[in-house]
Amino acid sequence: MGGNVFGNTRRIKKDEYVKLTNDLLYEFHRYLLKNNLVDDNYYGIVKHYRDKKDFGDIDLISTVDKKHFIDFMNQNINVSDSKFKVTSIKSTPDEVHFSIIYGDNPEPVQLDYIIVSKEDFEWAYNYYSFNDLHALIGNVAGFLDLSFGHKSLFKDIYTDKDGNVIDIPKNLLFRDKNSNDNVFYKDKIELTNNFKEALSLLDYPCDYIESKEQLKQHVAKFVDGFTDGKTVTAFSQYGMDKFKTVKDIIEFPMESDYFDKHLYVGKNHKSANRDKKRQNIQEAMEFYAKLDSLEKRDDISPKELEELEVRALRLRYFNQQENKLVLTPFSHYEKKLEEIKEKAKLKYFMDEKFSLFNLAQYVKHVPDAKNKMSNKELAKQELEFIKDFKRYLHGKMTMRLMDAKEFDQAISSLYDSWIDSLTDKSIEHNYEFVY
């Protein structure tokens, strides 16, 4: 997605985009029929706002394995009567990018094939629809310390080394400089991959959401219409009446009670740089910046007014009632949270107890190994000996929390077993000091 993978592709005018996507989806559908891949899969052209005049690329999202789509596209290489010809391919685990020539225009355009699982398809299809709409909604989710991603609505969880949860605000606007000081472990809890449920939770209407079965029906209708010469577009137009212009996309996030214009400035460096490259995001931020949250007064400067607005937002955030309430519908949340706490404690245990420095004290065949390691006096062969012992432990031990006595007994016993295995003449090694 984005239309800048190859650096030499052109933008596509709307009339050509309609023809290209029609030809593409129809031919791909025929390929899938021929290979018995239609019934068990979902696929479709990602939707856009209705009045969009040109396009940086074509986004086709699908559950069909990328090897099949690459095979389908390869059949169009150097084919004289093909409507589109592949000139270049770049592949990543979740996307395949194609540079293709369509019709008589020698300048290539970009086609992105986005692969998702059947479980994630409905969410991803709706998330990518209507340009940057759902990226903008992601900022609103951030007020509740949630992430509205391309696969699900989830919550990042941070803990210290003892498994205690550390509350770190999603938006930098609510963080202090010491927020990350004691973070040892990070994980996430997926709350839902039901798109309607997530939108409702964020206080948005769901009338524009299209189910994967509805999309499947549209594709079937399109194929029938294409064959009969009827004017049915490859992309579904479900919801396009709601999002006719960029302005509709920009204004929609404001419908949530959680919306605040200042949520669009508290971003990390990586997110901010990414947003600079997205025109719709930039237009939205400029639009939100001009909104008046508080009544203007002659005795307060614009800067002081902005500071008051941010202070009011921070007070609302730190009240935390909304942040906690939003998690109540998810019965699995507390269970998953406890699992993450245990993972954090186990990771710390593993990092500490299974460090080379700690294991050195159990290695009897390298006298004073721990002190040698502290003073950087350990010979190369001795260090490799300890590393091999660590690998042996990982293959033999069930990794779980243990008290100090139990751990000492287990490691000492396994060390003796390892040495016994090394003294077996059938086992080759270079540790002369073992014999």
Please write out the topology.
Elements: E1 12-13, H1 14-34, E2 43-45, E3 54-55, E4 58-62, H2 66-74, E5 84-91, E6 95-102, E7 109-115, H3 118-128, H4 133-143, E8 147-148, E9 153-159, E10 165-166, E11 185-192, H5 195-201, H6 212-228, H7 246-251, H8 269-276, H9 279-289, H10 302-319, H11 321-325, H12 333-353, H13 356-359, H14 369-374, H15 380-396, H16 404-423
Parallel strand pairs: 4-7
Antiparallel strand pairs: 1-3, 2-4, 5-6, 6-7, 8-9, 9-10, 9-11
What's the number of helices?
16
Indicate the multimeric state.
Answer: single chain
Give the termini separation: 61 Å
Going by helix content, strand content and strand pairing, the class is alpha+beta
Element pattern in H and E: EHEEEHEEEHHEEEEHHHHHHHHHHHH
Hey, roughly how much beta strand do the residues contain?
A: 5-15%
| Low-confidence sequence ranges | none
Which descriptors would you attach to this protein?
16 helices; alpha+beta; 12% strand; 435 residues; 5-stranded mixed sheet; 4-stranded antiparallel sheet
Explain this structure to me?
By secondary structure, the chain is of the alpha+beta class. The protein contains 16 helices and 11 strands. The strands form 3 sheets. The protein has a 5-stranded mixed β-sheet, sandwiched between helices. Strands 8, 9, 10 and 11 form a 4-stranded antiparallel β-sheet that branches. Strands 1-3 form a two-stranded antiparallel ribbon. The chain starts with 11 loop residues before the first strand and ends in a 12-residue tail after the last helix. The mean pLDDT is 88.
